[in-house]
Automatic annotation (TrEMBL):
<protein>
    <submittedName>
        <fullName>TadE-like protein</fullName>
    </submittedName>
</protein>
<dbReference type="InterPro" id="IPR012495">
    <property type="entry name" value="TadE-like_dom"/>
</dbReference>
<keyword id="KW-0812">Transmembrane</keyword>
<feature type="domain" description="TadE-like">
    <location>
        <begin position="21"/>
        <end position="63"/>
    </location>
</feature>
<feature type="transmembrane region" description="Helical">
    <location>
        <begin position="21"/>
        <end position="42"/>
    </location>
</feature>
<keyword id="KW-0472">Membrane</keyword>
<feature type="compositionally biased region" description="Acidic residues">
    <location>
        <begin position="153"/>
        <end position="284"/>
    </location>
</feature>
<feature type="region of interest" description="Disordered">
    <location>
        <begin position="142"/>
        <end position="293"/>
    </location>
</feature>
<keyword id="KW-1133">Transmembrane helix</keyword>
<dbReference type="Pfam" id="PF07811">
    <property type="entry name" value="TadE"/>
</dbReference>
């Protein structure tokens, strides 16, 4: 089996000296940042200390001067004494109003501390700043004066008007559906049958009229020649009648052939009865033959 061996790196000659050089470079790069952070922490700590000292001195001086009979000088002395205990130098103390009487309502004490003369470092980052604190208290007077010293309450803000409700959008009317086109009516087979029957009736009437005209013409001819052709006229009349009957039969057959077959659903209307044929006029009596001479 292969055994893993840990090989130690060989030390280069002068390796410790090379490592020291890297450390010096790293320290040179990080030292300014470190010094800046430390100085900033010291400066902000001192400024916070001075702020609390000035705030406490202003409150104690105002609390000392609000009692009846206290003066402005007593308030300044009290504030200076407290600042000296905290190691604050060159502080400025202001008491307002300068004359405190029985009708004084409020007293305000202001303490200003310069950072230049109170910094822990000679060249501090906040040397040009000024710490200023003030405190305002009501004097201990009769209630009438104390009430007059109360600040006027701020007027209540007017309630915001309720927003008008947005009108609901009117629903759009749905488009009316277009009317469907009416289907074309199917042709009525009864109408066709009626038309065919009418045509057949007209044809029959025409044929009857023609027959009547022929009969009239034949009768006129018979009247003119009845002396010579009485027997022939009778035969012709019989033939004409037979021909008319044959024509009527043929027309009826043609009409039957032209009629369409009735559909099973609608029953066909009954055919009208054929009109009766007009009765032939009575033939005139033949004149007696002239007497033989």
């Amino acid at each position: 089996m292969n055994s893993f061996r840990i090989r130690r790196l060989k030390k280069l000659p002068g390796g410790s000296n090379l490592r020291r050089g890297v450390t010096v470079v790293e320290f040179a790069l990080t030292l300014p940042i470190l010094i800046t952070i430390v100085i900033g922490m010291i400066e902000f700590t001192r400024m916070n200390n001075l702020r609390h000292a000035a705030d406490n001195a202003a409150y104690e001086a105002a609390r000392h001067v609000v009692v009846p009979g206290a003066t402005k000088a007593e308030a300044e002395a009290e504030a200076q004494n407290l600042l000296a205990r905290a190691g604050v130098k060159n502080a400025t103390i202001t008491v307002t109003p300068s004359i405190i009487g029985e009708d004084t309502e409020n007293v305000t004490v202001t303490v200003n501390v310069p950072m230049m003369t109170n910094s822990w470092l000679p060249a501090g980052l906040t040397r040009d700043r000024l710490v200023s604190r003030e405190c305002t208290l009501m004097t201990e007077r009769v209630p009438v004066i104390q009430v007059a010293g109360l600040p006027e309450p701020e007027p209540e803000p007017e309630p915001e008007p309720e927003p008008e409700p947005e009108p609901e959008p009117e629903p759009e009317p749905e488009p009316e559906p277009e009317p469907e086109p009416e289907p074309e009516p199917d042709p009525d087979p009864d109408d066709d049958d009626d038309d065919d029957d009418d045509d057949d009736d007209d044809d029959d009437d025409d044929d009857d009229d023609d027959d009547d005209d022929d009969d009239d013409d034949d009768d006129d001819d018979d009247d003119d020649d009845d002396d010579d052709d009485d027997d022939d006229d009778d035969d012709d009349d019989d033939d004409d009648d037979d021909d008319d009957d044959d024509d009527d039969d043929d027309d009826d057959d043609d009409d039957d052939d032209d009629d369409p077959e009735p559909e099973p659903e609608p029953e066909p209307e009954p055919e009208p009865d054929p009109e009766p044929e007009p009765e032939p006029e009575p033939e005139p009596d033949p004149q007696p033959p002239p007497p033989m001479i």
